[in-house]
Design a protein that fits this description.
Its cofactor is Zn(2+). 28% of the residues lie in helices and 15% in strands. It is α/β, with parallel strands linked by helices. The structure holds 2'-O-acetyl adenosine-5-diphosphoribose and zinc ion.
Length: 270
């Protein structure tokens, strides 16, 4: 057994041992809620329970490519509210950067499109944005890229951006339902077989294929869920640990056990 116990102190002890070299993270909207960005499925506060005003046939339609073609207004209304730039990374984002600076982070797989991990200073090459991001955008008809500053202006002014070449709709390179995940995701996924530790943070693990990544780590690899509720298959293996708490609180305690708390605060205050 690699872990001596199912608590944060035992995880820290393992992380300090020679057995723990490759740490992987799978993250979702829950790592950004303390920044003020709502998650999707939390009752009351989640985006999907607050989309009524957008007149959607069902909440996920806001991220459906066929619906978007017919009516891009709901998505752009949401984009206006979620516009990156408005929000500051959380302590959890800084912890991910710290893992990277300590040489432990192999890959951070994120479902989030808020780009807060980049803004926290996690190196680009360590991040897989599995559902894309607001970083680039293009025409959904001819594929022509669209200027980043221009789309920011449009979103800010509540206007819909159209292609300068063919007048098609422009969409940020976010993965919608009905679209495939980026090649980088499929190329990086097999590296999970080398995982010594997996953190699953702030995700309900309801969306596939992302949720299936948890099964790619070896049986001996501890899988640590840090989330407000149980999620996916975490808990079904003997080495699984579930920490049902706010992730900012859990990572602070973990950093303290690792002797990294000062480093963490320094990064966060940057
Ligand atoms: P969800 O809203 O489904 O799940 C967020 C999870 O985070 C929930 O289980 C919450 O309990 C938990 N949570 C919220 N705040 C937390 C906190 N401070 N600390 C710890 N846990 C917290 O969001 P995702 O799993 O990210 O897809 O959703 C996955 C995908 O569904 C998204 O990427 C999006 C959506 O449709 C696309 O946009 C394509
Ligand atoms: Zn076009």
């Amino acid at each position: 057994e690699l872990l001596k116990g199912k608590d944060i102190a035992s995880i820290a002890k393992y992380m300090k041992s020679k057995h723990c070299k490759n740490v992987f993270i799978m993250a979702g909207a829950g790592i950004s809620t303390s920044a003020g960005i709502p998650d999707f499925r939390s009752p009351k506060t989640g985006l999907y329970s607050n989309l009524a005003k957008l007149n959607l046939p069902f909440p996920e339609a806001v991220f459906e490519i066929n619906f978007f073609r017919k009516n891009p207004v709901p998505f752009y209304t949401l984009a206006h509210e979620l516009a990156p730039g408005k929000f500051r990374p959380t302590l959890t984002h800084s912890f991910i950067r710290l893992l990277s600076e300590k040489g432990l982070l192999h890959t951070h797989f994120t479902q989030n499109i808020d780009t807060l991990e980049r803004r926290a200073g996690v190196p680009d090459e360590d991040i897989i944005e599995a559902h894309g991001s607001f970083a680039t955008q293009r025409c959904i008809d001819c594929g022509e890229p669209y200027d980043g500053d221009e789309i920011k202006r449009k979103i800010k002014g509540k206007e819909i951006p159209y292609c300068n070449v063919c007048q098609g709709l422009v969409k940020p390179d976010i993965v919608f339902y009905g679209e495939g995940l980026p090649d980088e995701f499929h190329l990086a996924a097999p590296s999970l077989k080398n995982a010594d530790l997996l953190f699953v943070m702030g995700t309900s693990l309801t969306v596939h294929p992302f949720a299936g990544l948890t099964r790619l780590v070896p049986r001996r690899c501890p899988r640590v869920l840090v989330n407000l509720e149980l999620a996916g298959d975490i808990g079904s293996r003997t080495n699984d640990v579930t920490i049902l708490r706010e992730c900012d609180i859990a990572v602070r305690e973990l950093a303290r056990e690792l002797g990294w708390e000062e480093d963490l605060d320094k990064l966060w205050e940057e």
